[in-house]
Amino acid sequence: MPVTIRERRPDDLPVLVDLLAAQQPSTSYPQRWPLPFPPEEFLVRPGEVAAWVAVEDEAVLGHVSVTELIGGRMAGEWERATGLSAQGLGEVSVLFVADGRGGSGIGSVLLDTAVAEIRRRGLTPMLDVVGEDTGAGHFYRRRGWRTVGTARPPWLPDHRPDLAFMLLEDERVDA
Q1: Does the CA dihedral 146-172-86-122 come out positive or negative?
Q2: Residues 132, 133, 134, 136, CA torsion sign
Q3: pTM of the prediction?
Q4: Preceding peptide of 153 cis, ω within 30°
């Protein structure tokens, strides 16, 4: 069966918590596990404007959300690290797929869904990733994202690379 994308529902949260926990040892996402707060708060963030899950044969296999950056958890860090305003940006957040499903295209479909929503809102897509030279960082760079700054937030473990702020600018066609 093909993977479909649908809006996240409240009854998806227990399954998503289990998926997040199961994939964390192989991806290190999130950076700390167990989290020092309920994992549902990691999944559903302040400023969230939309969220989706990837589903195959009724099984939830992945997640992504879009959050507003203005007033969000990383707006100040973004502006200090990049010198750019958070105004006009939409953030791709909490993108992950089920353990063993990396490389299957699910992450790409989820990312495309989030980017399309951000663009529909007239915003420029941004995200943060721990380490631009990690598997996740390479995934985004292959898809046209570029690093515009870095930060070292207090929640980041000492042994992990800096947080990279990435931007996906509008595609331009030269005439």
Answers
A1: negative
A2: positive
A3: 0.91
A4: no
The Cα 137–Cα 113 span in angstroms is 19
Residue type, 91: E
Token representation of residue 157? 């473990």
Widest Cα–Cα separation across the chain: 52
Structure tokens that stand for 63 in this block: 């997640």
Domains of the chain, first to last: 4-167 (3.40.630.30)
The pLDDT tens digits of the residues spanning 143-165 come to 999 999 998 888 888 888 899 99
CA 112 to CA 68: how far, in whole Å? 17
Residue 16 has pLDDT above 50, yes or no: yes
What letters, b where the CB count within 10 A reaches 16 and e where it falls short, cover 151-168?
beeeebeeeeebbbbbbb
Q: What is the mean pLDDT of residues 100-120?
A: 93
Task: List helix spans (H) across 44-164.
Answer: 75-82, 106-120, 135-142
Residues 66, 117 contacting (CB under 8 angstroms): yes
User: Kind of pairing, strands 124-130 and 89-97?
Assistant: parallel
pLDDT at 173: 41
The confidence score (pLDDT) of residue 1 equals: 64
Closest CA to 27 of 62, 54, 1, 79: 62
